[in-house]
Amino acid sequence: MQGNGEDQANDDAARAAGFAAPFDRAEWFDLLTAHGFAGLGRIDARGAANGTAAWLPLRIETPGHLAGLTNWYSFAIRPLFSGGGDHAAALSALFHDLRAKATRLTFYPVRDEDRADIASALRDAGWWVNAAPAGDRHWLDLSEMDHDSWWESRPGALKNTVKRKAKKGVVDLALFTTFDADAWAAYETIYAASWKPEEGHPALLRAFAEAESARGTFRMGLAGIEHEPVAAQFWTVEDGTAFIHKLAHVEDSLKASPGTLLSAALFRHVIEVDGVKRVDFGTGNDGYKRDWMNRHEPLWRIEAFNPSRLAAWGPALKAFARSLLRKDP
Fold first, then answer.
1. What phi, psi does 84 have (nearest 5°)?
2. pLDDT band per the 50, 70, 90 thresholds, residue 14
3. Burial class (CB in 10 A: 0-12, 13-18, 19+), 40
């Protein structure tokens, strides 16, 4: 458990590193732990060097195998820092200390911009490291674009759909900036009737939504047809970025495009009202994400093996062999 001062330091460091995210806070890791995602136990790995401290929450996958504390709602895992600016040395110290505790480490999902720093610190600490692409990330970089400029850059088919369906007036839209129990119940009903598989952990998602509402970052949209909710989306906004967490719509409502209209309304709100400069669509390479976003990058799985432990050699050989096979034409 982190103290309030350290929480703030980590939040400030995350912003300095590029942008802060819900998954960079002690509260997120505490929430995962409370809802049973810490595996066989949680370890808060720490390291320090030259006035800088590094922190990385881990779970025990199996005895000797530690992994970043994440679940399917996590957009990314990365170390967090407080104090001075020597991140590389502090992270290397963290990973050096872990060699006394672990045979193997696994981190996923790791963003492209964090991969090199994590892999380098692991190697400096004496680990064998294998990094492989394992997934995709789509996001919107607005730069100097306002909402109308961004919308003009979108595919014609998307713009035409929004224009035609909005003109018909069949779909009613409602946006929420604080948690509403009735709206959330409607979301859960929509999700149950959607094309998606059964929700992984609805109690965790609700607790997360309530916590984000208390922080003032909660955004949610509902779309209805004849007063019946048929689409819902849960977003958050933080430090100039909007994060799209969950989408759902009822299958037989597709002709009215309620999900598309709802997305358009939420994009307009976060850009014009919240003033975001980035929108993160999370993990996954769903084709529809390309219609809304202008950036696409790989996500990475980083595996590290402790050469001082014989038990690491077999898994390491298999991991490196898989990487070699992927590189073959």
1. -55, -145
2. very low
3. exposed
